[in-house]
Amino acid sequence: MRDRVKAKRYSKAIVELAIERGCVDRIDEGRVHLIEAIAAVPALIGGLADERASFPERMSAAREIGASLQLDSIWVNALCLLIEKNCVYLIPRVLEDVADRVRTIRHLARARAWVFDGDAVHALRKQLGTILCDLLGCEVTLDVIVDPSILGGFVMAIGDTQFDASLKGGLDRMKEQMLA
Q1: SS3 string of the chain?
Q2: How many CA atoms lie within 13 A of 26 on its CB side?
Q3: pTM for the model
Q4: Greatest CA span in the chain, whole angstroms?
Q5: How far apart are CA 135 and CA 30, in angstroms?
Q6: Which of 7, 38, 67, 107 is most buried, judging by how many CB atoms fall within 10 Å of its CB?
Q7: Which residues contact 71 (CB under 8 A, 6 or more apart)?
Q8: β-strands 139-146, 108-115: how paired?
Q9: Contact (CB, 8 A) for 61 and 48
Q10: CA–CA separation, 18 vs 61, rounded Å?
Q11: 136-153, pLDDT tens digit by residue?
Q12: Mean pLDDT score, 40-50
């Protein structure tokens, strides 16, 4: 939990600086470039965190990554700060949190739904998307994942809030009540 709080603080600072400088779109583009770079070179985070390389070498590597990806100085400075604080492992979470904050600024929301039945995906995506859009008052991107382990119903996550209307969740809650 402590790491999640740290990541949120870094992402908040990144986005607030971007708003102040009027470069939110550029920060979001940099976020996408960083995600693509990490996907292409999975050892990237480990390399920046590897203390066998000297601190100046790792800082130089962060600046080179920033230059090659044409990142805004906010991202370069954030990478350097994460190296300095030995928090490079937070990069994926920071990237995710920045995406959430940018979506909020743009009045977009992202939700995830886990369903039992793969046949229900299309209908559920449309229905839930409409309902969430009305409730939240903004455009909603809805990812629907088929998960047979929930046994029936669905689980919905919007940001840090999760609603469990699954059969498995109901059975788990009943078990907890019976054992209490």
Answers
A1: CHHHHHHHHHHHHHHHHHHHHCCHHHHHHHHHHHHHHHHHCCCHHHHHHCCCCCHHHHHHHHHHHHHHHCCCHHHHHHHHHHHHCCCHHHHHHHHHHHHHHHHHHCCEEEEEEEECCHHHHHHHHHHHHHHHHHHHCCEEEEEEEECHHHCCEEEEEECCEEEEEEHHHHHHHHHHHHHC
A2: 17
A3: 0.65
A4: 59
A5: 31
A6: 7
A7: 30, 33, 34, 65
A8: parallel
A9: yes
A10: 23
A11: 777 777 888 889 999 988
A12: 94
164: left (phi over 0), alpha (psi -120 to 50) or beta: beta
**Alpha-carbon distance 134 to 74, whole Å?**
35
CB atoms within 10 A of CB 80: 18
Tokens of 13: 């600072």
Q: Which residue has the higher pLDDT, 23 or 118?
A: 23
